[in-house]
Specification:
The chain is an alpha/beta fold. Helix 10 packs antiparallel against helix 11. About 50% of the residues are buried. The strands form six sheets. Strands 5, 6, 10, 11, 12, 13, 14 and 15 form an eight-stranded mixed β-sheet that branches. Bound molecules: flavin-adenine dinucleotide and flavin mononucleotide (FMN). The site of flavin mononucleotide has 20 residues, from strand 21 and helix 24. The site of flavin-adenine dinucleotide has 34 residues, from helix 1, strand 2, strand 3 and helix 10.
């Protein structure tokens, strides 16, 4: 087999090595436009897990690599004069140049032909090759040549960054967040060999302009970085090597294979430097391609196996990198945070590291996080302990005069089980048991303000005395038997009305017994759904009066809090989203106009609802669809409601239009809560695929929400909060006296269970290379 590899970077070279080992008889040539020892960049970084992989796939290169590496265990975060160090991270760095020299030597040793200073353009050079590996880096010429086929998506991120170096020794992966007269600068720095460290500097485009960096030469910008970070550099110089400021391109390709050509490394997919994974991704691609050839002898079969088998892993890494880079792009949001909370946010930004996991590795740091959180709670007027604080999820929270004992919320969930809008025994047991299970706040399902406002015939309502009495029975039960507060969610289905019960066909139109529906504009939800009437002023007046009447009934029934449902494509949401609102009057067009009716309804309800009781609004913070609401719009919507007296924004997303394309994942809506909370400066509740108490604590401690709602987890576990309280030893959790024996038992057992699990985790965790070096009496290079 004849193989041509375009590009002698880590991806191309490592694949050449692995393929040559697999097929020693094959003819492999790597074409590299640079000289052998000429390269850009300073250090590269690998996690211990990546090194384990290298050890498995090619021992000789692995052994040479690890000899050259600097190791560290700590991440150090510098912010506003503080330093926080978190151990147990197991990373190492090596110079890119050394890495390439090792890989070049190893490839040559195996018989790979390396041709330097060949800038490949003419493909006739390898017309007879059976396999052409396109590993020509981030600006890949060959990817672009066949762009019609590969369909690359290049998302040029707004922040500016440059790769520089220094002689400054570092004993940790170091982040420095530095305020300057122009705005924030961030340094991502680590040592990769004795007296050499990599320094990636990053800043937002506005700060970049204000600092005049656009017109500065390489030397001038290095001098400016020396000045800004001089206090830390301690006289060490900043070094450059083609260190120009650029925007990071997030690259994805729809297709990776074209005939016998295959994309590898950066040419195919890039990963932001903040998770230190560019070179790792490139070399693991090489491993994946090699594995495909090991399993499939033919080129076509192997390439197809590589493309299908590798894609998910690459997308996962890119997603983590995306989440991380977005955090750095929005660092200004957290600039006023307490440094401890800020550092916690840095550590947990990409979801892999959580509150519990940090508690194992850095208990002192998490204790400081808990104390910081408790201090914030004290500033809200609560007499909570700071010396021995509860975990964040068990800290109380105040909205007007309503106090919730903890931050866990049962999310509003339609049970589709009412008759004529009247909640029955099912509802009493459902809400009652979830309240007794310990959640601080329980929401009703969307309760409809009129018969026509219902989504389905099974929805609860609050437009008559019978419904009011039935709700009062549930409210009274909850107040008598639990510590939970009870929030009434009021809504109107709009264009999603007159549809089937969830389990008979969600959002599908009723085949018989449908009523006339109305919406902001006459656009059906499904093509075959009923076309709604465009709401007239008379409709709007009537609906507003119905909301007010239901709020009044809610107050009489004794609810503690009231929510206006403006999410998920229902009537209020249909006014907010440009995808569902095409009105030509003062209720359509600009966001200000689209907000007008929901705000009118909110104001009217607020006037009726007692001043000491809080109100929230649920919004879809993105429509996940082209031309729809975005996170930035959500900030404006939240600001508008806050100006009208909303106490909490309940941040959900989507369900506006059928064509939406949500990006699901753990805690997938939390970034929107984070954005709304920290940009609009309003309290938020987040929700969406949050399933563990650890996640609840992570979100709260990082300041990404004030309350955390869980929907589906509560459907199968009413006692989610009680169990979490036992786990974290939050003894103050309310428990009905009838259940005290159970509570005492789970609290006792949890202490032991937790100890056992933690010991197991510690035992199961392999030692990091830095720890092993230290144990062997060697110093990690970084400390030399
Ligand atoms: C300026 C800069 C500095 C970086 N520094 C670091 C760092 O310090 N640490 C880190 O982890 N990551 C760094 N990265 C990212 C990292 O280099 C990549 O993620 C990783 O190298 C990808 O490996 P690759 O083999 O796919 O591509 P590359 O390493 O980019 O290799 C591609 C190779 O192809 C060659 N080539 C391109 N076109 C042709 C052609 N037509 N003919 C012949 N040869 C060609 C190039 O010269 C290059 O050697 C840096 C990236 C840039 C842009
Ligand atoms: C059965 C069911 C019914 C729901 N009904 C409502 C509702 O009435 N009002 C509402 O705002 N959200 C409703 N939701 C959305 C949830 O409140 C929540 O936002 C969503 O389920 C995501 O959270 P989770 O991943 O914790 O389940 C419903 C969800 C489910 C599963």
């Amino acid at each position: 087999m004849k193989t041509a590899i375009i590009g002698g970077g880590p991806a191309g070279l490592y694949f050449a090595i692995l393929l040559k080992k697999l097929r020693p008889e094959s003819d492999i040539t790597v074409y590299e436009r640079n000289r052998a020892d000429e390269t850009f960049g300073f250090g590269v970084v690998f996690s211990d897990a990546t090194l384990d992989n290298f050890e498995k796939y090619d021992l000789p290169s692995y052994q040479r690599i690890v000899r050259e590496f600097a190791y560290w265990d700590d991440i150090a975060i510098h912010f506003r004069g503080t330093e926080h160090r978190i151990g147990g991270n197991g990373f190492c760095g090596c110079s890119r140049r050394t890495l390439l020299l090792i890989l070049q030597d190893r490839a040559e040793e195996l018989g790979v032909t390396l041709r330097y200073e060949v800038d490949v353009d003419d493909e006739s050079l390898f017309a007879d090759a059976d396999l052409v590996v396109v590993a020509d880096g981030i600006n890949s010429r060959f990817r672009e040549r066949y762009a019609d086929h590969f369909q690359p998506e290049v998302d040029l991120r707004p922040n500016k960054f440059t790769w520089m170096g220094s002689t400054k020794p570092l004993d940790a992966f170091t982040f420095i967040f530095q305020e300057t007269e122009w705005g924030p600068f961030i340094a991502h720095a680590y040592q990769y060999e004795a007296n050499r460290s990599t320094w990636v500097f990053e800043t937002d485009p506005e700060t970049f302009e204000r600092a005049g960096l656009r017109d500065k030469s390489e030397a001038e910008s290095a001098a400016l970085m020396e000045k800004i970070f001089g206090w830390f550099l301690g006289g060490h110089r900043i070094l450059t090597n083609r260190s120009i400021w650029r925007n990071f391109p997030m690259i994805r390709n729809k297709r990776w294979v074209l005939g016998n050509k295959v994309l590898l490394g950066d040419a195919k997919a890039s990963a932001h430097f903040s998770i230190g994974s560019g070179t790792k991704l490139a070399m693991e691609d090489a491993i994946a391609l090699y594995e495909a050839f090991r399993r499939e002898p033919g080129v076509e079969g192997a390439l197809s196996l590589y493309e299908t088998g590798r894609r998910e892993e690459v997308e996962k890494i890119q997603h983590a990198a995306d989440v991380s880079l977005v955090w750095f792009e929005h660092v200004a949001r957290f600039w006023d945070f307490d440094p401890v909370q800020f550092a916690f946010g840095v550590m947990t930004r990409a979801k892999a590291i959580t509150y519990d996991n940090l508690r194992l590795r850095a208990p002192d740091f998490v204790a400081a996080v808990d104390r910081t959180f408790a201090n914030q709670v004290r500033r809200q007027g609560f007499d909570v302990s700071v010396e021995n604080p509860s975990a964040p999820m068990f800290q109380p929270f105040r909205l007007r005069e309503m106090i919730v004992d903890n931050r866990v919320v049962v999310s509003p969930m339609d049970m589709y089980s009412a008759k004529d809008g009247v909640p029955g025994d099912f509802h009493l047991v459902h809400y009652g048991s979830r309240a007794m299970g310990g959640a601080g706040l329980v929401f009703t399902e969307m309760t409809c303000v009129s018969p026509e406002a219902r989504i389905t015939l099974g929805c609860t309502g609050l437009w008559n005395d019978e419904q009011e009495a039935a709700w009062k029975r549930i409210v009274d039960f909850i107040h008598a038997n639990s510590g939970a507060k009870f929030c009434l969610q009021l809504g109107h289905s709009g264009r999603k009305g007159a549809t089937k019960l969830m389990w008979e066909g969600i959002d599908r139109p009723l085949e018989e017994g449908a009523w006339e529906i109305c919406s902001a504009s006459p656009i059906p939800y499904f093509p075959d759904s009923q076309v709604p009437r465009e709401a007239t002023r008379a409709d709007m007046d009537l609906i507003k009066a119905q909301f007010v009447d239901a709020a009044r009934r809610g107050e009489r029934a004794g609810f503690d809090m009231l929510e206006l449902h403006c999410a998920h494509g229902y009537l209020m949401a249909s006014f907010l989203s440009p995808l569902t609102n095409r009105r030509m009057d003062e209720y359509g067009g600009s966001l200000e106009n689209r907000l007008r009716f929901p705000l009118e309804v909110f104001d009217a309800m607020r006037e009726t609802w007692p001043a000491h009781k809080p109100m929230s609004v649920r919004i879809s913070a993105t429509d996940w669809a082209e031309g729809g609401i975005t996170g930035d719009d959500a900030v404006e919507i939240a600001r508008a409601f806050a100006e009208h007296g909303v106490d909490l924004v309940d941040v959900s997303t989507g369900q506006t239009v059928r064509e939406s394309r949500p990006i699901y994942g753990r805690m997938f809506q939390t970034p929107f809560s984070d954005q709304v909370r920290n940009e609009a400066q309003v309290a938020t509740m987040c929700v969406g695929n949050i399933t563990a108490a650890d996640q609840v604590n992570t979100i709260l401690a990082a300041g990404r929400a004030d309350l955390v709602a869980l929907g589906r987890p509560h459907l199968v576990d009413p006692f989610f909060t009680m169990k979490a309280a036992a786990w974290y030893g939050a003894k103050d959790i309310h428990c009905p006296p009838q259940y005290l024996a159970g509570r005492d038992q789970i609290f006792r057992n949890s202490v032991r269970d937790r100890q056992d699990l933690e010991e197991l985790k510690v035992k199961a965790k392999p030692k990091t290379r830095a720890e092993l070096k230290m144990e062997a009496g060697e110093k990690p290079l970084a400390a030399e």
